[in-house]
Amino acid sequence: MSFHGQKVLPAARKMKDFEKLLKSKYTYIVCLDTHISQLKFMISMANERNKKVLVHLDLINGLKANEYAVDFLAQEMKLAGIISTRSNCIIRAKKRNMIAVQRLFLLDSLALETSYKVIERAQPDYLEVLPGIMPEIIKEVRLQAQIPIIAGGLIRTKENVMQALEAGAEAVTTSNPELWI
What we know:
The chain is α/β, with parallel strands linked by helices. It has helices spanning 15-22, 36-48, 67-77, 87-95, 109-122, 135-145, 158-166, and strands at 8-12, 28-31, 34-35, 52-56, 60-61, 81-84, 99-105, 126-130, 149-151, 171-174. The strands form 2 sheets. Strands 1-2-4-6-7-8-9-10 form an 8-stranded parallel beta barrel, surrounded by 6 helices. Strands 3-5 form a two-stranded parallel ribbon.
């Protein structure tokens, strides 16, 4: 599984940015912040343009991030996949044949060790490592987990993008339109 060579996964925080991405060259796009009443319309517009949307489940206002939400999104929205910090949601997304991205906030050594246990339990398709500006940690997690890495968070420059990719990340998520290169 891959993003068909797409190295930047542009992430929209606002409807204006989402609409911009619908007209872009990108096949895979990330929806970070939205509310449940907008989501069906957004996904419908994306599907009409052959875009594959990954939704950050934990950031959908009006929808509790749990297994039932994953079922709803799989049945009603026809999403490509979800991003979540919740391993129970990742497990359900995989059962629903959605791309399952486990988001990891690696703040310190304890968070890293705890993350390895979560990864082992959930077996996501991808790991989104935050912050994504830690090349050494990207390398370590990739080797330890044997799961493809997406780098995200605090990616501010083209150099940050290149460093993450050179460290072994398969792709980089960014909400900075200047990096949607």
